[in-house]
Amino acid sequence: MLKCANEGTLLKAAGDANDFLGDAWAHEATVVAIPVERLGADFLNLSTRIAGEVFQKFVNYRMRLAIVGDIGPRLEASKALTDFVRETNKGNAIWFVPDFEALRVKLEGAAAT
After folding, report:
1. How confident is the model at residue 109, as a pLDDT?
2. Alpha-carbon Rg for the chain in angstroms
3. Residue 111 has pLDDT above 90, yes or no
4. Measured CA distances, 84 to 29, 35, 55, 80, 90 (Å)
5. Crossing angle for the helix pair 50-60 and 17-26, to the nearest 10 degrees
6. Which helix (H) or strand (E) holds 3?
C-alpha cells in the first residue's frame, strides 16, 4: 500500500491521478491511500465530475484507491455525495474510510473474499 503524505500535490483533476498512479507503480503498490487533505476543493463536488473521472482512471488501471479522512461535513451537506460514498464503499476498488485503521480492516475483508 502506498500511503500518501498529508502535504503534496493536490488531486484536483483527472490528470493529477497520473502522479499518484506513477508513484504507486514505482512502489509496487496495489492500493493508494490519499488523505482528504490532498483533495482539491472541488473534488467532492459531484457536479464537477472530478471524483468520477479520477476513480474511473484508477479502476481502468486496476489500482485500488482509498480516500482517507473525515468528510462528515461534506456528507451532511449533500445527499448525492452520501449516496455516492455509500455505493462506492460497496465495491472492491474505491473506498472512503475515516482513518488508516478502517482501511486496514477493509483490506483484510477484501483479501478474504
Report:
1. 82
2. 13
3. no
4. 25, 18, 12, 6, 10
5. 30
6. strand 2-3
**CB-based contacts of 23: which residues, under 8 Å, 6+ apart?**
2, 4, 29, 32
Query: β-strands 64-68, 94-97: how paired?
Result: parallel
- What pTM value is reported for the model? 0.94
Q: 3-state SS of 55-71? A: HHHHHHCCCEEEEECCC
The DSSP code sequence of 4-57 is --SSSS-B-SGGGHHHHHHHHHHTT-SEEEEEGGGB-TTTT-GGG-HHHHHHHH
Quote the CA–CA distance of 68 and 37 in Å, as a whole number: 9
Kindly tell me the burial class for residue 110, based on how many C-beta atoms sit within 10 Å of its own C-beta (0-12, 13-18, 19 or more).
Answer: middle
